[in-house]
Design brief:
Elements: H1 2-22, E1 31-32, H2 44-48, E2 53-61, E3 67-75, H3 78-90, E4 93-94, E5 96-98, E6 101-103, E7 105-113, E8 123-124, H4 136-140, E9 145-153, E10 159-165, H5 170-182, E11 185-186, E12 188-190, E13 193-195, E14 197-205
Antiparallel strand pairs: 1-4, 2-3, 2-7, 5-6, 8-11, 9-10, 9-14, 12-13
Length: about 220
């Protein structure tokens, strides 16, 4: 009886093994690395005119996961294409694999730039106004707090009469006030012309991530 069962079991195992051996994992395609993706900078000239648009680019990604070269396939404005290429070249990628080996591959992506053409409020020019730095002394003492700043922005994009408020240490309040007072802005628009308007900024200082102020806006 045992001799009859054993050949059947052995045959079944051989059949199962042969089926598994024929199954191959699908090839992994190149993807942007979410931990090393650089956001595209909104071109100041297009932002100033309140233009929205898109740019589609095609890049060659090396086996090590970096963009070797990128070309603009289409763009609603030349500056959008340049911004898209610059972002891709500065980003990292998860390379494409074939037979467990990374391969050179192509990557295509469309960047979207959106703004409100009818906005009557000033826009902080973050391209030329980098996020405020956490003061070293505040970092040593693990200070935290929220600060709100109100400014008048003239038609040129310069801040005037800025004031700060909020329940936070004076050092953080002063740092926030200085940042918004010295920052650059795209002025508010009325009937297609720049006008003076009010701006309200806010920083949520977090001592846990002093170099990554997610609460900044």
């Amino acid at each position: 009886m045992i001799r009859r069962i054993f050949p059947l079991l052995f045959g079944s195992l051989m059949l199962t093994g042969s089926v598994c051996a024929e199954d191959e994992p699908p090839a992994l395609t190149v993807m942007s690395d979410p931990h090393h993706t650089v956001a595209a900078i909104y071109p100041p000239s297009e932002q100033e005119d309140r233009h929205s648009g898109t740019a589609t680019i095609h890049c060659t990604i090396t086996p090590t996961g970096i963009a070797k070269e990128c070309h603009v396939l289409s763009a609603t404005a030349p500056d959008f294409g340049l911004a898209a290429v610059q972002a891709a070249l500065a980003s990292g990628f998860l390379p494409q694999y074939a037979d467990t080996q990374p391969q050179e591959a192509s990557w295509e992506h469309t960047y979207t730039f959106t703004t409100d053409p009818t906005s009557t409020r000033p826009i902080l020019d973050k391209t030329h106004s980098r996020p405020p730095r956490y003061p070293a002394y505040a970092d040593d003492l693990r200070m935290s707090g929220e600060v709100t700043v109100n400014c008048d922005i003239d038609p040129v994009g310069v801040a005037h009469n800025c004031t700060a408020s909020g329940d936070s240490p004076e050092l953080l309040k002063t740092t926030t006030l200085a940042y918004f007072a010295l920052a650059r802005y795209f002025p508010a628009m009325t009937d297609g012309k720049p006008v003076s308007s009010h701006y309200r900024g806010h920083v949520n200082w977090n001592a846990v991530h002093p170099d990554d102020q997610q609460g900044f806006r």
